[in-house]
Amino acid sequence: xxxxxxxxLDAFTTTEESTPDRSASTPAAASTxxxxxxxxxxxxxxxxxxYEVVRASFEETSPSALLDVxxxxxxxxxxxxxxxxxxxxxxxxxxxxxxxxxxxYHDDTTVTYRASGRVFDERWGEGGSIVRHRVYLNxxxxxxxxxxxxMTELVTGYGNPSQVRKADTSxxxxxxxxxGHSVQNNDGDYxxxxxxxxxxxxxxxxxxxxxxxxxxxxxxxxTHLPDTDEQEWTxxxxxxxxxTYERLAPNxxxxxxxxxxxxxxxxxxxxxxxxxxxxxxxxxxxxIPDSIPPACATQTERATTVVASxxxxxxxxxxxxxxxxxxxxxxxxxx
Length: 335
Hints:
The protein is an alpha+beta fold. Helix content is about 15%, strand content about 25%. The protein is built from five helices and 17 strands. The protein has helices at about 45-60, 160-165, 205-215, 310-320, 325-330; strands at about 80-85, 95, 95-100, 100-105, 110-115, 120, 125-135, 150-155, 190-195, 200, 235-240, 245-250, 255-260, 265-270, 280-285, 295-300, 305. Strands 3, 4, 5, 6, 7, 8, 9 and 10 form an eight-stranded antiparallel beta sheet that branches. Strands 11, 12, 13, 14, 15, 16 and 17 form a seven-stranded antiparallel beta sheet that branches. The longest helix has 16 residues, at about 45-60. It starts with about 45 loop residues before the first helix and ends with a helix.
């Protein structure tokens, strides 16, 4: 994806945007999104032409081998699930569902997709989260450029997790201010509006690029993470694309605990002592299993990088299943 990244902000951004009332979408029939079960219809729909742009965008931004991974959805639409009304000029149609992602808000200047289902964060206990991909026309304010900007939004609430999880966002410009979420009043509540990830001159390319990315993230990472009830590892927190496991370190090491972490694009193992600054922790990449094509994962000195977060469980599961002594020997974490 062409990028123009900015650092994520702890507070919500305040770009002004037009948000007229949302009209009803084209009725959508329920359909499966599993790669092996997707039913191909011989009847053409407006999505057929749109997905030509989706496939072209995927070819520009991702290795083709990514489509061979089970966790990644084939670049074909759910044929009967789309909207053709209340869209920006130049965007004739957009899918209303891509895996776990649902078309959340759409009008003449904005298109958002929201994750549904198991979206949680356990950093301080089970919290309700809302995550959205957002494409909007940046045509107001001092920094307007008349281009379509792509960004992500996140809120997580611990004071009222159920209320946050069920919050209606279909008529809101931004996620700040939703009922049940309050950074000021609830311990642990937080919200992040990411900076502009990419800019596009036309809306069809912008939305098609986002839809192509959603096919590589069809569900939250927790859906694919292994349970650890009978293991010494404990899943201590997870979000939409992130997860952290911890366990006590073996006595023969110099560490107090081991931490296995997956971020949006990296997986690594860390050895640390209690009350030791994070900068002093030893961090190493994890092995790349044969189930991940070579073009989809690489190793650096401190982490294994993946091209899509849906690949992270494939890196995590072998570590959890092996005896920890074999893990430490295989990845050369100092003992």
